[in-house]
Amino acid sequence: MRAPRARLSLQLVEPPPDGLPDPIALQHPLFALLEALDALGSLQHAARSLGLSYRHCWGELHRWEGQLGQPLVRWARGQRAVLTPEGRTLLQRERLCRARLSGSIGQLQQALDALFLPVDAPVLRLAGAADPLLGRLQLQARAIGLALPVQPARPAEALQAVVRGRCDAAVLSLREGLRRDGPSARALRAGLRPGAQKLIQLGQRSLGLMLPPGNPDRVTGLADLDRLPCLRSPEDSAEHLTLAELRAQAGLPPPPEGAEEPCPEALAEQLRAGHAALAFGPEVAARAAGLDFLPLVREHCLLLMPRAALDAVPAACLLALLAGPAWAAALAQMPGCSALGAGRVLPLGRMLSWWPVAALRADRAEDLAA
């Protein structure tokens, strides 16, 4: 038997109603059915949840099992349907592949969506890491005719892209009270220009420890990363910098070594599959994967842009969106996120208490003069 190959195709669909997220951008009917069976334990209920008939799902499942040469579901009269080891492994691998590529898939989707905006639509070019909050912002911006293309970058790279004019704004996540000699200060300092740059608040997010359901290892805090198998985010990613800050503040050494995943969604899928005991990441990723979560810190989600760009049409459109009720309602649906402060424009000194005093005074003086 020859193994099947994946073939990707595009579909043009009506956008979802305001405030609702897009459905999964890339999923094969087989994996959608296995996902529903795993969650519901019944082919009848799984078919209903997918809007399909029982007979259709039964026939398709047997066709796929024949094509793959192995059973994917175990049936027993009067008991829940359960995935076979082969079926579970297949579903876990598909989830992980999709999570690892979620940022790239989202960027492709947004780039293609932008093709259908008017040629004179305002554009605000962003640099930063893919994130569910940012994805929701792009969706709402498109609904008002504003394009927000995102160039993949870690925080320090995003700042340099702004300084060099390769983008209009950098996507950052910062908590208040960062130390002058901490990891975030060292990583970001070279790209910051107090007085010449401003911060726009998008909202807030909760970060902490993502854990298997029920917290079987009785994790209580950051020190458990040193005693249990853990996963980590890439070096100099926003999550890695925040974790390093928290551990230094608690008198702990830098984050321990561990298997690395490119994004929080992939960390969560590895935990769901039982491949590690814990990982540090955002609550929204943990809850989406059905994990437990131990909150440790709240961060401000921000855009940093040149002061002069705030008066341009794209920034004005974005500020109006952030201050509106639709954005607050959208974030209220995302676990661990809130629109508190969204739409406010801040001087860098509001977040950067570690910056040299003279520069912060100049920043405040310019704000008063304006």
UniProtKB/TrEMBL annotation:
Which ranges does the record mark as transmembrane?
none
InterPro entries in the record = LysR_HTH_N (IPR000847), Molybdate_resp_trans_reg (IPR051815), PBP_domain (IPR024370), WH-like_DNA-bd_sf (IPR036388), WH_DNA-bd_sf (IPR036390)
**Its Gene Ontology molecular function terms?**
DNA-binding transcription factor activity
Gene3D superfamilies (UniProt xref): Winged helix-like DNA-binding domain superfamily/Winged helix DNA-binding domain (1.10.10.10)
Q: Which organism is it from?
A: Aquariibacter lacus
Source taxon at top rank: Bacteria
Give the protein name, as stated in the record: LysR family transcriptional regulator
Where would I find the PBP domain in this sequence? 140-322
**Lineage of this protein's species?**
Bacteria, Pseudomonadati, Pseudomonadota, Betaproteobacteria, Burkholderiales
Occurrences of domain HTH lysR-type (ranges): 32-88
